Amino acid sequence: MSAAPVGTREIGRHAVRAELARVAFDRFCLTGFNQVTFADLAEAAGVSRSTFLRYFGTKEDVVLFVFDPVGDVITDALAAERPDQDEGDWSRLRDALESAVGFLVRDVQELVTILGLVERTPALCARLREKQAEWRPEIVARLQETTSSTDGSPVVAHVRVAAALEILWIVLGQWSASDGQEDLGQLLDAAFAAFSTPAGR
Amino acid sequence: MSAAPVGTREIGRHAVRAELARVAFDRFCLTGFNQVTFADLAEAAGVSRSTFLRYFGTKEDVVLFVFDPVGDVITDALAAERPDQDEGDWSRLRDALESAVGFLVRDVQELVTILGLVERTPALCARLREKQAEWRPEIVARLQETTSSTDGSPVVAHVRVAAALEILWIVLGQWSASDGQEDLGQLLDAAFAAFSTPAGR
DNA sequence: TCATGACTGATACTGAGTGTCAGACTAGGA
DNA sequence: TCCTAGTCTGACACTCAGTATCAGTCATGA
To answer: What is the model's pLDDT at position B2?
Structure first.
């Protein structure tokens, strides 16, 4: 799923990439994303601008490449869960999202910092949403192929996946606003309650 | 709500903007969004590059400025509906979305063309999602201030609005794929069914 | 030891978007 | 009618993201 580095070349490349991202991230937090240029980053990292650009296609990717595997994490989680057959879509999506946040939350403080930077930088928000949109079709397919499929329209699955992915960012935003204090499982439950409670009428 | 042109200056500016957008749109459809430069557009429209850039801050806005009022349309619609008090959030959001699509669908063929262009141009998708994210806080506030507020967490309103806005694009995508044939009201119903049907368990 | 292929830095280029400036135009008051 | 203040325009210069090319260097594996 993730770009598992195999071969010495790949390992080295992976390590360099991580180091460049680390240096760059400090700069972004210090000065602000838009204020930092590739020339600045290259100088700070001690490489040429060309080299820096070879490791990251765009400036956004320097920050957001850590989110790349999330799509696969979610699809894999959907495929893996199967012990008790008849779970509803919402329940399955909730669990898949729990896998996703589990993957992301390794260093709490780091993730909080990243989310803060993303939140106050429109360009990063936009690019992240773009990634999210790329994940969607595969997740929808996985959800549909293992669902009871008693639901009428095919759009229903699309809508549910889209809603779930929205929840992911809402919950992460809420969580990072609490500085990583709140419990992510509870936040997910509270968010998914938007669909289970009758909501009037 | 929309930028109502008042004063001769404003009227003129509005008209020029519309004409520039029209010329540009033809080019985009003919050659592809990314292949067309501001220099091309300026030449095609018979103005200087500077002037063109003064009317539209970014290339994306040349296409997407038509969506600008949608946020206000939705908030206004939420505020306006009130005849029978106790409607649920979903029902209210559905009706507000119907106002939004009603606002957008004036020339069917034109909207279908725009949506097609947006769909096959990642940069346009991203910018449109950015606009959507800007609308959200206000819509959430409006929904909350006129809701029965029996729901527990404040995130619930956020989630419902986010989900509804996702539905907007999913439904419009579906609709434009059918070349504007399908009924938008029915599509909205089908999409919102994702929340009303129990979804297993 | 050598050949292949990858990595690097240098350089040049396109195009988006910003800022400034001087001149032309126009609305609106005297 | 004339004047003035504010607006619109084209021209120009600039920064920076992102693409592409090329020659030199270095590690790997035969």
So the answer is: 41
Q: What is the pLDDT of residues A37-93, one digit of tens each?
A: 999 999 999 999 999 999 999 999 999 999 999 999 999 999 997 666 667 899 999
**Which segments of A53-123 are extended strands (E)?**
none
User: pLDDT, tens digit, for every residue of B155-177?
Assistant: 999 999 999 999 999 999 999 99
Cα dist from A166 to A120, A169, A170, A188, B167, whole Å: 18, 6, 6, 11, 12
Tokens of B23: 């010329």
B13 touches strand D (CB under 7 A): yes
What's this model's pTM, rounded to 2 decimal places? 0.91
Q: Do the beta carbons of residue A133 and residue B125 sit within 8 Å?
A: yes
Assigned CATH topology for domain A66-195: Tetracycline Repressor; domain 2 (1.10.357)
Please tell me the CATH code under which domain B8-57 is placed. Answer: 1.10.10
Domain ranges of chain B: 8-57, 64-196
Cβ–Cβ of B133/A156 closer than 8 Å?
A: no
Confidence (pLDDT) at B81 = 77
Query: CATH assignment of B64-196?
Result: 1.10.357.10
> What pLDDT shows up at residue B1?
43
Distance from CA of B135 to the nearest CA of A (A): 14
